[in-house]
Design a protein that fits this description.
It is built from six helices and no strands. It is an all-alpha fold. The protein has one domain (2-135).
């Protein structure tokens, strides 16, 4: 399962250098909801540093935003049912809109919508594979 997270992280880093769609927000949203572990904070911080290096921005801006994003998702885990497609879609969409607006990108809503759709598909695949591994007692 960690191989999937590593591959998705490398994919998010590679695609972020090519396009302006923040796939890292979708990756973090899905990872936070599926795994519910604190190592996602470190993933957010490291991913933010790589994004700042790729985009040639002062270090720490994206790390701060991504870490706060993961914190907000973890904060609402107890209030809402987070392992649903609707929550993943809405949290990714709102996080992407804020990220794109803050860094002054163009076509904010279209990019956020594409990112939210990508994260819903990733969530569905990751959640099904994670539950399959739990049923077979491979991952506990």
């Amino acid at each position: 399962m960690f191989l999937v997270v590593i591959l998705l992280t490398l994919f998010a880093i590679a695609v972020s250098g090519i396009t302006t769609i923040p796939f890292s927000i979708g990756l973090l949203s899905v990872s936070t909801v599926v795994f519910r572990k604190s190592w996602v904070f470190f993933l957010a911080f490291g991913l933010g540093l790589f994004l700042d290096l790729i985009v040639i921005r002062p270090l720490g801006y994206a790390s701060l935003i991504l870490t706060i994003f993961v914190f907000l998702i973890r904060l609402y885990e107890k209030k809402f049912e987070t392992q649903t497609i609707a929550f993943v879609f809405i949290s990714t969409f709102l996080g992407s809109v804020f990220y794109l607006w803050l860094f002054e990108y163009q076509m904010v809503f279209l990019q956020a919508f594409v990112n939210a759709l990508f994260s819903v598909v990733s969530f569905y695949v990751m959640l099904n594979s994670f539950q399959h591994l739990n049923k077979n007692k491979i991952l506990k």
